[in-house]
Please model this.
Amino acid sequence: MKPFMRNTALAIAVGSMALFAAGCDQAGKPAGDKAAAESKSGDKAGEAKKDVKVLGGMKTEKEQNSYLIGMDMGRSLELLKDDIDLAVLQKAMQASMKGEKTALTDEEAMQIRQRLQETVRTKQVEKMVAMAKKNQEDGEKFLAANGKKAGVVTTASGLQYQIVTEGKGAKPKASDTVRVHYKGTLLDGKEFDSSYARNEPAVFPLGAVVPGWQEGIALMPVGSKFKLWIPAKLGYGEQGTPGGPIGPNATLVFDVELLDIVKADGPESAAMGTTPKH
Model:
């Protein structure tokens, strides 16, 4: 899994706006400049000649480009939706893109930017606290019910597992390197990582992964398939994966297949495959 992150929603918004203003050329020009832009560049004639696939009911690249940028900007500004007047935002964008004098000076814009950054930080903290509380409560409720199901074993640490297929091979030690196939999902079923999807087993030292994986895989004889339910304290804890798919205090679900224990002097130990961060 390769988490991605952004510093703040404001930074994302700035990036989106930069793309909108700098990377779209004629696609980003306001409606009032349409005729002039098309006359200068021959955009209308050129676009008519292109074999553009209709997407979302939109027949031209200009429409599709504009809608895409609008989607990206909307998502990046979701955290600030209650603090933004879309009509004023549009007015400022049009003025800036036309090269007109804006209502704010650079100094005034800096003052507002600093205030807005603080607003974003506060909202992010509030969002994370609320998410952590909900995930913790949902996880505890789920594990309490799941632990009562037939075939589900709860260990002293709180890890839960179920044997799907029990192999006949040796069980790995904490010092071993193992080769596994796996799929990881959240409690809502959303998949966040899968070696099956990459069509490449993961090879990693057992001691390098999170406690829930260390304990769970050590219970598996080679050739086994287990289902693991990992509480947050044995996974990514209160931090989750910042900017990534795993939220704070998230309970994780894994389907794991232990393929082999890699020999220390074998070729695979010298050139390991993708290593999960679980």
